[in-house]
């Protein structure tokens, strides 16, 4: 096991325990929506986004418990987006990480409500005083996450993605796909990293460095995801592969070809590492994450 | 026009103008989700919840612009819940206020995203410094709204409502329906009123008085809603009537009968007025709201 794999596993364990506590079961008929929220959140996953929050926070001397709660709030947002994405009206997926998707396990109405409840819970956690004693910091964390998750970010990116079906294929070029991914998946990665700097009340230059790192790393992540869809093995990847091509969907790989896509991902990973030049060895796991993005098999 | 009707209309005009500004259209493919968010929010409605925020805030000397932004954030939450409620997997409604519902005007995927985007935007607005110069007040407003809108509140109530289909009808009694409504619709009314006290940094006793008023008033509102579904005229009410009975749904009216339900609504309205005993004439419009609840025709 590499240092990164060990650190990721150790962090995921803490994240899972904290998510379990933040999403405590309740009695009564409303217990079912909590159960679905737990199902949508606690079925595993690499917990990459909370790991990034913890690592970035570590650069700025932030106590781990604070970063952990921010990471859990972010993971709730990520999880709600997957629950809604899997719905029949969206991607219509039956499986997620080898298990029935939330609406298959429960039902569509419960899955819609579970996603809605997870989003609300994320902001409730962020506004609470376990996250930071300075309420201005908590407000900044709430506002930044709301922007990253909402129409100016993830939700906007999902809309751009849906609209691609109605676009002249000739207009779906690299700049278009890049912007789509920066909104749809990139903005939450940026949030993960900048949240560490916000928690540390770090100067603007640090916030910009974290965002620049996350932008390059997130795009490398996405290109690697497209490569896995073409080249990956379904059992290893843990979800269906070949879906983009089957759907006739334009991706970095369909537009650039496999070789060029791989070169671009490598280039972006090194560029991400370069954004961390001002930081010492405490940024080594962030450097490793960027490089891992382009070598991962799942 | 009564004083209340005039005040409601004047307030709705300000709310609509501010919502229009807070949900500014954007270019690009993601513009479609903003368009759907605007459609789900700006198609009219009484703007009762923002009115309550403004009136409650007025008791505690809060500048109107601050209360207006909190009222708009709350209205975005209310609007997102209607957009998601109308979806085929939920209530499957084609019309809302005489217009096609969001998923009929756009499509299901866009309506899901529009609801998600509205929820995020509400918290973004609340965390911003137009709402209050003291960030602790903003954090309190975010945390309280997240709780009222999420699984411990509205979302939980929607779940309890969905579960009623699977319940032994004999267990759906007045305490069950009361709790269901306190979660599903009551918690946002409570938030509307307590937000005024939070904005005014008022003592705990005032916060409790606002919640007690809202609890009685909200329940009166709900019983009146059930009565309108039985007795109302579709054109006046502005939505389908007789739906509860057609669906075999237990309501205050089906359990208590029309006469008893009306008496209970009247009793609650007067009880709500009683909760305002400590306040002077500045609370007269809140008193009028409670009484209007049980006389309204739409």
TrEMBL record, chains A, B:
The keyword Lyase does not apply. Belongs to the FPP/GGPP synthase family. PROSITE patterns: POLYPRENYL_SYNTHASE_1 (PS00723), POLYPRENYL_SYNTHASE_2 (PS00444). GO terms for cellular component: cytoplasm. Its cofactor is Mg(2+). InterPro entries: Isoprenoid_synthase_dom_sf (IPR008949), Polyprenyl_synt (IPR000092), Polyprenyl_synt_CS (IPR033749), Prenyl_diphosphate_synthase (IPR053378). The keyword Ribonucleoprotein does not apply. Keywords: Isoprene biosynthesis, Magnesium, Metal-binding, Transferase. GO terms for biological process: terpenoid biosynthetic process. GO terms for molecular function: metal ion binding; prenyltransferase activity. This is Farnesyl diphosphate synthase. NCBIfam families: FPPsyn (NF045485). Coiled coil: none annotated.
């Amino acid at each position: 096991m590499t240092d990164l794999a060990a650190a990721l596993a150790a962090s995921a364990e803490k994240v899972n325990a904290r998510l379990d506590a933040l999403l405590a079961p309740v009695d009564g008929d409303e217990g079912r929506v909590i159960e679905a929220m737990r199902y949508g959140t606690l079925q595993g996953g690499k917990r990459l986004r909370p790991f990034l929050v913890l690592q970035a926070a570590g650069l700025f001397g932030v106590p781990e418990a604070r970063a952990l709660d921010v990471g859990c709030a972010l993971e709730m947002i990520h999880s709600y987006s997957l629950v809604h994405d899997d719905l029949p009206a969206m991607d219509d997926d039956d499986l997620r990480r080898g298990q029935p998707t939330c609406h298959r396990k429960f039902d569509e109405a419960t899955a819609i409500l579970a996603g809605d409840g997870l989003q609300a819970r994320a902001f409730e956690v962020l506004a609470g005083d376990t996250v930071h004693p300075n309420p201005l910091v908590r407000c900044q964390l709430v506002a930044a996450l709301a922007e990253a998750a909402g129409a100016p970010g993830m939700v906007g990116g999902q809309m751009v993605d849906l609209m691609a079906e109605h676009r002249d294929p000739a207009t779906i070029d690299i700049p278009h796909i890049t912007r789509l991914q920066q909104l749809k998946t990139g903005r939450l990665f940026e949030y993960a990293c900048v949240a560490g700097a916000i928690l540390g009340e770090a100067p603007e230059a640090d916030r910009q460095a974290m965002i620049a790192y996350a932008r390059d790393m997130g795009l490398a992540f996405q290109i690697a995801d497209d490569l896995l869809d073409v080249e990956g093995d379904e059992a290893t990847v843990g979800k269906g592969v070949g879906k983009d091509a089957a759907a006739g969907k334009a991706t970095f790989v369909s537009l650039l070809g496999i070789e060029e896509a791989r070169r671009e991902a490598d280039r972006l990973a090194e560029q991400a590492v370069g954004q961390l030049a001002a930081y010492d060895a405490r940024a080594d796991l962030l450097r490793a994450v960027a490089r891992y993005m382009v070598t991962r098999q799942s």
